[in-house]
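> example.struct
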């Protein structure tokens, strides 16, 4: 079965609309192709006046902070690297990790398992749906504001650590290599 048959393409952690022309036209012109009830339902996903295919070069590009886990092990470099970590978390909320000890083959295997999960039929993925108000599990954007714009995406959010907080009911059994 073609995982893109429903008009979605899956890749490592996200799914997006495929370039299938009729569906693309519907997304660009919902009032033309959808009943009014569907238009109201989907309008939070339509971002008018944006050109997602072009990079806005008038905005300066800033590099995401990098934290070297290897430097955290050494007493000589630990303090400075911890300062970088604290700064990245307080100012960015994210960072790139280097020298984490995971092999490129392990990371590629993780990507492949994620692709397999997001290529599953929607009904299978929904077995792991998050509960209302919770981040953990399968789902899409949490709606926090009435007029919030939403991304056309789905996610699988799982707690890894501490182990006693893992909720295995959200951990997919398919693909079998996921767990």
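> example.seq
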């Amino acid at each position: 079965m073609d995982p893109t048959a429903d008009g979605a393409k899956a890749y490592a952690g996200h799914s997006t609309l495929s370039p299938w022309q009729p569906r693309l036209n519907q997304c660009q012109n919902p009032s033309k192709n959808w009943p009014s009830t569907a238009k109201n339902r989907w309008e939070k996903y339509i971002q008018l006046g944006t050109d997602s295919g072009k990079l806005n070069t008038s905005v300066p590009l800033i590099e995401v902070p990098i934290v070297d886990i290897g430097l955290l092990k050494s007493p000589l470099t630990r303090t400075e690297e911890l300062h970088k970590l604290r700064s990245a978390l307080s100012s960015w909320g994210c960072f790139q990790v280097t020298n984490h000890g995971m092999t490129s083959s392990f990371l590629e295997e993780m990507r492949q398992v994620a692709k397999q999960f997001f290529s599953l039929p929607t009904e299978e993925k929904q077995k792991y749906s998050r509960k209302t108000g919770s981040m953990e599990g399968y789902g899409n954007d949490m709606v926090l504001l009435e007029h919030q714009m939403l991304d056309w995406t789905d996610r699988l959010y799982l707690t890894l650590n501490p182990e006693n907080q893992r909720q295995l009911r959200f951990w997919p059994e398919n693909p079998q290599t996921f767990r």
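> remarks
DSSP finds seven helices and six strands in the chain.
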